[in-house]
Amino acid sequence: MFDLGEVEGTHYITMEYVSGEDLKTILRMMGPMSAGKVALVARQVCEGLAEAHRLGVVHRDLKPQNLMIDREGSVRIMDFGIARSLKVKGMTGAGVVIGTPEYMSPEQIEGQEADNRSDIYSLGIILYEMTTGRMPFEGETFLSIALKQKTEAPRNPRELNPQIPEDLNRLILRCLEKDRGRRYQKAEDVLSDLEKIEKGIPTTERIIPPGRPSTSREITVKFRPRKLVLPAAGLVVLVAAAVFGIRLLSHRKTSPAEAGGKPSLAVIYFENNTGDPGLDHWRKALPELLVTDLSQSKYVKVLSGDEMFEILNDLDQDEVKTYSAKTLREVASRGGVNHILLGGLTRAGDSFRLDYRLKSYGSGETVGSGSVSGQGLESFYPMVDSLTRKVKEDLKLSRAEIADDIDAELDKITTSSPEAMALYIEGREYHHRNDFAKSIELMNKALAIDPNFAMAYRSMAMSYSNSYLRSESGRCLEKAMGLRDRISERERLLLEAEYYSRSERTARQAIDAYERYLKVYPDDAFVQNKLAYLYLGYNLYDKAIEFSLAAIGNKSTKYYPYSYIAGAYEALGRRDEAKAVIDSYLRDIGDSAVLRGSALAEYYIYHGKFEAALTEIDRALALSPGAATIAFTRGAPYIYQGDLARAAEAYQNLLKYKNPAAPMYTLYGMAQLALLQGKFKEAASLAERGAASMEQAKETTLLNGFRLTLIGSQWRSGRLTEAAGTCRRVLDSGKAADSLAWQRRALFFEGLVLCDQRALGRAEAVAGELTSLCREAMDPQDQG
After folding, report:
1. What angle do CA 465, 468, 474 make, to 5 degrees?
2. Are residues 233 and 96 in contact, defined by beta-carbon separation less than 8 angstroms?
3. Residue 237 confidence (pLDDT) above 90
4. At 85, is the secondary structure helix, strand, or coil?
């Protein structure tokens, strides 16, 4: 590089003309290189990097295409177009990804500052490609490659090319360490080891080094930061994925061999060998108890009961009595686990016995088996506690790990009643099937047996939340929080995070709880999805994408992370990219009622494709027949078409759903339609009915939804004093629920109403209140 300057606002770089070929072209023509040639090229690249780093310049886009080799064999590092000065921070926007994904370091993928060790990582990839003829991490899209750069270990180069000297192999793998603190820290250190390696290469394979390039010390650029700032459109980590192709986040089935360092297992539903159909419910209850017990472990990864249900339901195997070898392989593959545990229950009078076999997925061999016995149903808990310890031993946990592990007794972290536990597990199954009303009914029965069953309260909170009955959900969370000493440490952190995430004021506490959880259980995709959801809600799109990718990297096959990445695109106005992410999930992984009935339907409505939107909603309802919230969206395409009669029919049809909130959705939809048609008196009447019902039920979300409809009817019909009063009621309700969002909405509408009343002084005061609330809604990362 000879010069860097600017002419009439146009920046330019003057570089040496090199007559030769770039390394990428040479590799395509010749394939893998001998150790001697690799050492020759690598040594020259290291010399160039060492010089650049000495001058404070990081290349940031080192790749074979940017390494030119002339006819004499001299190597030039080209294209310093996105280089950064080590002496000047922040030359590109925070979170903006720059580089070529196949050669980018993990820290660049995450949008962090690049330093000289980032160039060393890229050099490691180049060396890998030179020695093996292939790159360590490949994929069809930016995101798929990014996942591998961040989460996957490269395959050992010697497995692909046994001729690679062992010391060169070690050098390559050290360059490719994910943690930059474990890589070579300076190019000079790599150069020193390369020179030692060259001495060990047979003389016949050595290449005579070329003369030193005359331009090796001509990288004497004076960086002017003002002129080097790259334009950024506010995009954050990995949002640039669409540039690299539409097939986003393509997913392949997980091989259990890739599940990571800790042992992992799925617990299959047990066989009931007692001959008593009245004990059939223990087929699922016993595995759930075992999963609950094992899930406390820091050293074992266990497929959750929810995940097991989804996989078996997907395979249409959730009600079969025994499982074929093919089904077991499919469970292991979909669950990303390397062990399967099978069990059975037998009985002789009052005596019960649990038998188990632990199979390795890779070899198919049984790596552990045994049985535990007890008297009566009350012995099931101590039997499962004993079985948990046996399984840990079979999984080759050391004595120190077993002693150090988290392993509270089951009756201390669930319920002392086996009958209550059986009702809980049955209720969870109904929850999975979206029959939230039935799930709540069964949880209440479990609580009638054991009023201190914290997990039942937490499950009811989730069912109420999914039914959009937020106040009831909050009541159950309050109950569970009061009993959190009766759940496992793992469940306690989850409960606290859910409890604190209900309010913007406590968002930081929710994030802290999730982050403490991930320190103990770092590969939990469920919690990574939860964090992604929280960050998306606070418009922190880089964080939302980061944790969504982490969840996908931990083999999550749920729709959530894809939904959150799509949500980030949607918020940035990039609707086509958002749709591409959704399409990739539906095409490559599985179907989703939520993605079809919400995200895709909204996309088609936005583009005026109302029939396509209705088709997606109907497909969603076929997948999830009890989902009243999705059915409610069926009115929207008709409203946008002006067909209010069909919209009314769609809202009336909600009454056939079992969802406890369905009647209120019908009432709400009809009130909205009346408001649209200018039937203000009818709209007000319907809204008042709904508000009265929700006030009695203490359901804040729908209550204030009805009140906003009432404000609209009062405002539009000129009843401004009444409208202002209703705004105050929404404000008071928001304060009582500690909801900053409802308080902001109330003040916004009150300000508009006051302006129409010409009460400009009061409107200004309301604007001041609103401003204070907006300032109070801080970035959760900045809260104390």
Report:
1. 45
2. no
3. no
4. strand
Give 550-572 as a DSSP string: HHHHTT--SSHHHHHHHHHHHHT
Query: By three-state DSSP, how is residue 302 classified?
Result: strand
* Contact of 641 with 614, CB cutoff 8 Å: no
477 contacts 459 by C-beta, under 8 angstroms: no
What is the SS3 assignment for 296?
A: coil
Bridge partners of 341, per DSSP, are: 267, 358
- Rounded to 5°, the CA angle 776-781-784 comes to 65
When mean pLDDT is compared over 67-81, 237-251, 453-467, the highest value belongs to 453-467
Strand partners, 57: 85
Give the C-alpha separation, 358 to 365, whole Å: 9
> How many whole angstroms separate alpha carbon 179 and alpha carbon 253?
27
Reading the block at residue 457, the tokens are 């309260």
* CA 97/CA 112 separation, integer angstroms: 8
Cα distances (Å, whole numbers) of residue 770 to 507, 709, 741, 776:
20, 21, 11, 10
Beta partners for residue 368, in sequence order: 358
Six-digit token pair at 111? 């949008």
Q: How many residues does the chain have?
A: 784
Q: How far apart are CA 464 and CA 436, in angstroms?
A: 7
Token look-up 């250190």 returns 189
Residue 547: how many other CB atoms lie within 10 Å: 25
Better-predicted residue by pLDDT, 208 or 349:
349
Q: What phi-psi label fits residue 449: left (phi over 0), alpha (psi between -120 and 50 degrees) or beta?
A: alpha
User: In terms of DSSP bridges, do strands 264-267 and 301-302 run parallel, antiparallel, or are they unpaired?
Assistant: parallel
644-694, pLDDT tens digit by residue?
A: 999 999 999 988 877 777 888 999 999 999 999 999 999 999 999 999 988
Integer Cα distance of 665 and 468 in angstroms: 10
C-alpha 754/C-alpha 745 separation (Å) is 14
Q: How far apart are CA 11 and CA 265, in angstroms?
A: 57
Q: Indicate whether this model's pTM tops 0.85.
A: no
Contacts of 459 (CB under 8 A, 6+ apart): 424, 427, 428, 431, 439, 443
Residue with tokens 């929700």: 694
pLDDT score, position 353? 95
For residue 505, pLDDT beyond 60: yes
Ranges assigned E (strand) in 182-279: 264-267, 271-272
Token readout for 636 is 């929207």
Which residues, 6+ apart, have CB-to-CB distance to 474 below 8 Å? 461, 502, 737
- Closest among 136, 177, 195 to 160, alpha carbons compared: 136
Using DSSP, how many helices (H) and how many strands (E) does the chain show?
37, 13
DSSP state for residue 33 in the 8-state scheme:
P
- Residue 5 pairs in a beta bridge with 12
Name the amino acid, one letter, at 132: T
Q: How many angstroms separate the CA atoms of 465 and 445, rounded?
A: 19
What pLDDT, on the 0 to 100 scale, is given for residue 93? Answer: 38
CB 259 within 8 A of CB 353: no
